[in-house]
């Protein structure tokens, strides 16, 4: 089972590095990959969804770009034998003004289980 650093990075009760594993680690990996990944490193650009997801959430073109990046991301996860996106489950929901939720189900290839995932996108205030 995959194991990783807990984000934000911190310490556990014994003073060691806080870690996560199992489903918590999987959700953390996917959530991080679906963040804006804004950074100052010139050599690590275009890692995440970009800032369009924040400023253009109501734009159909921006949403299509986000879906394209999600599909590409999960192709990479599948090549690493981690997760497979169930493309027919991807959908946008809208409950609050200025907020969209991207929902989908992914197949965890390690545990051979299907898991739901949701990511809320909030526009600028």
In brief:
The protein is α+β, with helices and mostly antiparallel strands.
Distance from N terminus to C terminus (CA atoms, Å) equals 40 Å
| Overall radius of gyration | 16 Å
Strand order of the largest sheet: 3-4-5
Main beta sheet: 3 strands, antiparallel
Q: Runs with pLDDT <50, length 5+?
A: none
Q: Average pLDDT across residues?
A: 77
Order of helices and strands: EEHHHEEE
Q: Determine the CATH topology.
A: Nuclear Transport Factor 2, Chain: A
* Binned strand content: 25-35%
**Anisotropy-based shape:** globular
* SSE class: alpha+beta
Summed up, the domain count is 1
Query: How helix-rich are the residues, as a percent range?
Result: 25-40%
What would CATH call the class?
Answer: Alpha Beta
Per DSSP, the total helix count is 3
For the secondary structure, the number of strands is 5
Topology, pairings included?
Elements: E1 3-5, E2 19-21, H1 22-33, H2 52-55, H3 60-79, E3 83-93, E4 99-108, E5 113-122
Task: List the keywords.
alpha+beta, Nuclear Transport Factor 2, Chain: A, three-stranded antiparallel sheet, 3 helices, globular
Question: If you had to describe this structure to a student in words, what would you say it looks like?
Answer:
This protein is of the alpha+beta class and 125 residues long. The protein has a single domain, classed as Nuclear Transport Factor 2, Chain: A, CATH 3.10.450. Helices cover 29% and strands 30% of the residues. The protein contains three helices and five strands, in the order E-E-H-H-H-E-E-E. It has helices spanning 22-33, 52-55, 60-79, and strands at 3-5, 19-21, 83-93, 99-108, 113-122. It has a three-stranded antiparallel beta sheet with strand order 3-4-5. Strands 1-2 form a two-stranded antiparallel sheet. Strand 4 and strand 5 (113-122) form a beta hairpin. It is globular. The mean pLDDT is 77.
């Amino acid at each position: 089972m995959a194991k990783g650093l807990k984000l934000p990075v911190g310490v556990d009760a014994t003073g060691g590095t806080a870690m996560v594993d199992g489903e918590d680690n999987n959700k953390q990996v996917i959530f991080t990959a679906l963040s804006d990944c804004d950074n100052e490193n010139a050599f690590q650009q275009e890692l995440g969804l970009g800032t369009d997801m924040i400023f253009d959430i109501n734009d159909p073109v921006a949403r299509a770009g986000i879906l394209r990046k999600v599909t590409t991301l999960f192709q990479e996860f599948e090549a690493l034998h981690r997760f497979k996106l169930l493309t027919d489950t991807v959908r946008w929901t809208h409950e609050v003004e200025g907020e969209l939720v991207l929902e989908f189900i992914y197949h965890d290839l390690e545990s051979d289980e299907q898991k739901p995932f949701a990511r809320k996108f909030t526009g600028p205030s």
